[in-house]
Predict the 3D structure of the following.
Amino acid sequence: MDSDLAEAITALKEAFSKRQMSPAFGTAAEDVVNALASDLNLPRRYKWFLLHADPIDVETATPSERVRLVKAADLREEQKGFALDDAGQLLASASSNGWRPEWIIIGHSGLLGDPYFLDTSQADAEGDCPVFTAMSGTDNWKPRLCASSFALFLQVLAVTTEVAAGFSEDDFDPDNEHVFREAIGPRIREHDPAALKAGHWT
């Protein structure tokens, strides 16, 4: 596992620990991950993540969002009706509502159900790619950048989880959410200015 991914995983685990939250990470079987990587064209870093920190039961909790990551065992099923057709094959082209075969769902909003997904068409030299989200329940999927890479996505989740320690998880007052979003902005900028500019988190 490369240092950027290892650092991001450590940061996320430490943020959970500071909040006294107990997520369950595991290690997915290599043959399972290799099959997923082949069938879904998973980038190298995300493949390593599943091998070393499979999110068995991992969900962040902040005043503005809850992000639940998809474990390896459920990853293929999550793609059905999205990147996979009814026969379980990758789409040959974009669906009628704009979902593309290169978009692989890796998580969901625990509040709204919106998907978080990799855009594997934008894989970089490090074997990583950006993470997007899009609003569900609309006629067409309109991606919005969440992080410039998967490793940075984990860093952003770590930041939001850590900052949320000063806020009540059950207080959904709009003012409370606004203060939280303002607080995370500078911290996200340290890691991923493009994600901050996109505005999803703030």
